[in-house]
Amino acid sequence: MNPNYQTQPDSLKGRVILVTGAGSGLGREAAIAYARHGATVALLGRNETKLDAIYDEILAIDGPEPAMFPFDLEAADDSGFERLAGTISYHLKRLDGILHSAASFFSLTPLNQQTLAQWNSMLKVNLAAPFALTRACLPMLEASPDASVIFTGETHGHKPAAYWGGYAVSKSGLEALTTIFGQELERLPNIRINTLIPGPVNSPLRRKTHPGEDPGSLPQPDDLLPWYLWLMGPDSRDVRGKTIECTL
Ligand SMILES: NC(=O)c1ccc[n+]([C@@H]2O[C@H](COP(=O)([O-])OP(=O)(O)OC[C@H]3O[C@@H](n4cnc5c(N)ncnc54)[C@H](OP(=O)(O)O)[C@@H]3O)[C@@H](O)[C@H]2O)c1
After folding, report:
1. One of 34, 55, 167, 228 is an active-site residue; which one?
2. C-alpha dist (Å) from residue 18 to 25, 68, 192
C-alpha cells in the first residue's frame, strides 16, 4: 500500500464493522475513521464509559449510530462468543468486517518472572479470543459481499525477542492463525483475513511497554489510519492470508 493512500469518503458506507479494543488507542481511532467513512461500527471493550465517549464522538461527526458491546474477551467461553455474534446479528443484521485491536499486556520481563496467569490472559485476549470471535461471526461474514478481518500483530510477534514473553508468543500465533484461516477460506473469495502490524505508536499500551519514552517522538494512532482504512475497505479485496507491516 502507498502510505499516502486516500480512500473515498463513503468507502465503507452500508458496512457493519466490529472493533475490539475500541475504547482507546488504535481501536478507538480506527472505529471513528470507519464511522467517518460510512460504516456502522460495533464498539467492543470492557469499559463502558470509554465506549460511551466514542459513541458520542461518532454522533458528533454525523457518523451512523454505533452499537456498544461491553464485553470481557478474557472471561468469555464459546457460548459467550456465540451469544455475542447472535446479538450483533439480531441488532445490526449483518457483519462486513472485524478489527481485532484489544490486547492484554503486563510488562517486559524475563520469562522466569512471568506467571501462568499472565500467559493465560495474553493468550486468551490476544490469540484465542480473535479466533473464537471470528469463528462465531463466520456465518455473518460469509453472507457479506466483501468481508475483511484484521488481526493486530506486533513487531516482536513477527521477530521474537528477549523479555517480550507471552505477549510476543500470542502475537506470533496470530500470524499462524492468519495463514491457516487464509488457506481454509480460499473457497470463499468474499472473506479475507490478514494481520496488520502497526509498529510503535503512542497509546496507553505503548506507555506500558516503553514507560520512559517521549510520547511526542512516536507516530500517533491517526498516522496509521490509511492502513486501517485500506485493509478494511474494498481496495484491498485481493489481499488475503498476509501479515502486513505498516510503514510510514
Ligand atoms: N501501541 C503500539 O505501539 C503497538 C505496537 C504494536 C502492536 N500494537 C497492538 O495494537 C493493538 C491496539 O493497542 P493500543 O496500542 O491501541 O493499546 P490500548 O490503547 O491499550 O488498547 C487495547 C485495548 O484492549 C482492550 N482490552 C484489553 N483487555 C480486554 C479484554 N479482556 N476484553 C475486551 N477488551 C480488552 C482495552 O480496553 P478496556 O480496558 O476498555 O477493556 C483497550 O482499549 C493491540 O493489539 C496491540 O498489541 C500496538
Report:
1. 167
2. 16, 10, 15
